[in-house]
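Changelog entry: the Mobile element protein record was regenerated in this release. Current contents:
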Amino acid sequence: MLPLVPPKTTLGKASLYLNNEWSKLIRYVDDGCYRIDNNLAENAIRPFVVGRKNWLFGQSVKGVKASANLYSLIETAKANGLEPYAYLR
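Regenerated structure tokens:
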């Protein structure tokens, strides 16, 4: 049951969100393999976020999409303990 808080207030919206998402928010408690954070993913994309302004002016949309796919493959290989160059060969 939701607390008696006006639903249009910030606290009311937060309470409704918490109530609706509770089962997802505590999923990591059900299985010890689940992580409470996503630090691995955040750290993997950090170089691209930092360099984003350097890549802002890609030559074409296709080129930018190709680069994004390549970066994704490289980071996936790293995350799975593979050497990226050998993985892409």
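Helices lie at 10-25, 27-30, 39-50, 61-79, 84-88.
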